Amino acid sequence: MEIVLRNLTEDYVMLVYNEISSTLDCCKCDQCRLDVISYALNRLKPRYVVTSEGELMTKLCEFDYQFETTVISELTKAAKVVKANPRHKLNKDENK
Ligand SMILES: [Zn+2]
């Protein structure tokens, strides 16, 4: 079984982003999506684990409700910042 080093916070933020992205008032192009995620990640504590890919989901389930709330709050803030200063190419505005 392959053993990997993962930042659980990163996987979790991606997961939460996918769940709530439709409620975020922000462009969803790759640039903006990753900008939102990196903004949130820079404000959250990383949580590194050595695990196998198979166990990753189990580990992600260990995050509690309080942390989910924190992640949603950071993603919401991030979406506002990115929306105000989108870095995608303005000549092909995908902000719809
Ligand atoms: Zn965009």
Task: Write a structural description.
Helices cover about 55% and strands about 10% of the residues. It contains four helices and two strands; from the N terminus they run βααβαα. The radius of gyration is 15 Å and the shape is elongated. The protein starts with a strand and ends in a 12-residue tail after the last helix. The structure holds zinc ion. The site of zinc ion has 8 residues, from helix 2.
Number of strands: 2
Into which percentage range does the β-strand content fall?
Answer: 5-15%
Distance between the termini: 43 Å
Biggest sheet strand line-up: 1-2
Mean pLDDT: 92
Characteristic key phrases:
binds zinc ion, two-stranded antiparallel sheet, 2 strands, elongated, 4 helices, 53% helix, 96 residues, mainly alpha
Which helices and strands occur, and which strands form pairs?
Layout: E1 3-7, H1 8-20, H2 30-42, E2 48-52, H3 56-60, H4 65-84
Antiparallel strand pairs: 1-2
Helix pairs in contact: 1-4, 2-4
Bound molecules: zinc ion.
Summarize the structure.
The chain has helices spanning 8-20, 30-42, 56-60, 65-84; strands at 3-7, 48-52.
